[in-house]
Write a structure and sequence with these properties.
Elements: H1 7-28, H2 31-40, E1 54-56, E2 62-64, E3 67-68, H3 74-80
Antiparallel strand pairs: 1-2, 2-3
Helix pairs in contact: 1-3
């Protein structure tokens, strides 16, 4: 850790950065938002993703097979994965 940064503070900084990156990626890639809208409307079929494997996270993000869906946003995708 860096001098003067506790583990709790470090985790908060990491969480804030991840939240920022996800927001940026969701703004750039409309696909996860479209899938969440399909789930809300109870649409049962999508040619691009298996909706049965999709769900909402408590933070409002798309989960696929129980894991966060990382939007296709090249500048930040590596950081999110």
């Amino acid at each position: 850790m860096y001098p003067g940064v506790t583990l709790d503070t470090g985790l908060r900084l990491i969480y804030a950065k991840i939240t920022e990156l996800f927001s940026e990626a969701y703004n750039w890639d409309p696909f996860p938002t479209e899938v969440l809208a399909m789930l809300e409307k109870e649409i049962r079929y999508c040619k691009d993703i298996t909706l049965l494997e999709c769900s909402w996270s408590p933070t409002g993000r798309l989960l696929y097979c129980g894991k966060f869906y990382v939007p296709i946003y090249s500048p930040r995708r590596l950081y999110l994965i």
